[in-house]
Every structure is written in structure tokens, then in C-alpha cells.
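Lecture notes, unit on binding sites. The following record was shown on slide 14. It pairs a sequence with magnesium ion.
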Amino acid sequence: MRTSLLLLIVLAQAAAAQEAPLTREEAYARAAVTEVWEPVPPIVTPGAGNAPPSDALVLFDGGSLDAWRNADGGEAGWVVADGAATVKAGAGNLYTRQSFGSVQLHIEWRTPANVESESQGRGNSGVFFMDRYEVQVLDSFANPTYPNGQAASVYKQHIPLVNASRGPGEWQSYDIVFMAPEFSANGRVARPATLTVFHNGVLVQNNVAVQGPTEFIGKPQYEVHGKAPIRLQDHSNPVSFRNIWLREL
Ligand code: MG
């Protein structure tokens, strides 16, 4: 029995070894089976450096804040100068006039060079997706605070993997992939929102699941909603923003 099995194996190996090698044409024909030729991705011309790619929607290029409004729908009251928009304390949050769901967002920000206060009082602002889910903006350069509230945290939900902060007065960048939550017909969360964040080019949030709308007090709880504006926070600190663009996903 054992001998006959061995013989079978030997015969099979011999047969395999004798299989004629593929011709060039046969090899290409077999390789073609796993080639996918459609759909062809649309062409996008990338921007130089941090400049927006050709298919981006520019929300602020240093000129006007026309793409933004205040809470009442009126003109955005922040200060535009030297290619940047700076929080004017008391003018309130800014909201995009357009509503968005899932996006790739690029935004640059700068906390005041003149360091005042500490912890959450130092260069605080924030980028809220769908008017609800905050990626924290804060001067986190040698400024201890609770880590789930430092720069690049998903506020009170996810601590950034590392602290990639530049110093006060320096421009910094976020490149963010935000995926909107999905709700089933019965109002349950079918798929939570997710966030991937690069801070100054360093991965700091890796596809984390958002627990619900950002809360200062208490646990977040999802509510069913559709597309909504992106909000920039007026936290009374004169934080500046520039070069804001997105691509809807
Ligand atoms: Mg904030």
C-alpha cells in the first residue's frame, strides 16, 4: 500500500516535470485573465506641494470667506489678512455654506505666537465634520492637557498616536479622511463615522470609529442626520487658518 502510494507520487511528479513550458503567447494569455481594464480612473492633476488637486473644492484660498457663514447665515466675521482667516473672538463659529458628508479635507492652521494661558485655553479651535464630529485644534507644543483633548485628538474620543505638533506661531496642517456615518431605516447606526488624520504629514488617527457627536460633558450618542456643514470653532483664541480644500468622497 505504502509502496503504491509512493509510486503514484513519483509518477505525478514526473508528469508535472514533463509539462511543456508555456510559450510567451500562452503566458501572456494566462496573465491577461487577471487584468482588469475597466473602470479607468478619472484623471486628476495633483497640486504642487499642498496646493489643491484639480478636482478639489476650494473653501478658502486666502482671499474671501464667501464659502463660509456665521451661525445665523450672515457673513463670516473672522479677520482675513495676509492670506489667512483668524478667529475673531465673539464672532462665533464659521460654517461652510455647503453641506458635506464623506470628504478628504486639507486645512492649515496656526496657533498664536504669543503664548497665553495653558491646557485647553491655549490656541484652541477645532474642525467639526458634519457640524458634529471634532478633530481638535490646539497648541499642543509643550502644553500638557488631557491627551484625548490635545491637538489631533478626536475630542474626548481618540488620543492621537503621536504628538506631531509644531510650535506656536508656526503653520501646521491636517489631512483628514472623514467617512460619514450610515444609519439603517430603523435609526440604528449601520456604520459609525470614521476618521483618518495626518498631522503635519504624520499619521495620528488611523481609521478610528467615531463614537458619536463631540460632547464636552458626558457620553456621545448618535442621532440620525444627513449632510451638514463643516464648522470651524471660535474658542476665543485667535487661531488662523489657510489653504482649505476638500474632495467629496
Ligand atoms: Mg476645540
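Take-home: Residues 57-248 form a domain with the Jelly Rolls fold (CATH 2.60.120.560).
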